[in-house]
Write a structure and sequence with these properties.
By secondary structure, this protein is of the alpha+beta class. The protein contains two helices and ten strands, in the order H-E-E-E-E-E-H-E-E-E-E-E. It folds into two domains: 1-37; 41-177, Cupredoxins -  blue copper proteins (Immunoglobulin-like).
Length: 183
Amino acid sequence: MRDKLKQKSGAPALALIVVASIGLAGCGDHFGDKQAAATPSKLAITATEAGKHLHLSVPRSVPAGLVTVELTNTGKAFHESQLIRLDPGHTLKDALKVIAAEGAPSPGWIHVAGGTGPAPPGGKRSATQRLRPGNYIAYDAPFQNEGKGLKFGVASFKVEGEAGGGRATTSPMTPPSRTRVRA
């Protein structure tokens, strides 16, 4: 009797596993569609030095949504690219005042938005993340180059379009911004 009881209780469990497997297999196509729809656009950032200042070049704008940030270091020092989103009404000049006040708390209108890790001279780093529409700065801190007397670098760009978008646009990015800041 126990053997019959085990077989009967195992049959519904097996049937449930089969139905679940079929259901998940049916979802596979939709998952693939979502991945295809979320093809990231590209934010190409080039880093180098200009005298004792770190320098970043970025495009003027990128589409909102899923973005692969690609940092290329063409310089002789370490570089990184930390992304900061600014609330409307605030500018690069406002952000530079906060950056200059090292150790001071960040105001609520500055939002950490991702970025890359440090790239060695001649190296590359990348990170894929979702960027919301707004005004951004890319910030290159001199921490990896301590003792070399290098000052931070910063460049500004805009993220445009709908926040939910993830598909890369077919239009080319606008020409690079060449914002230089001297501290």
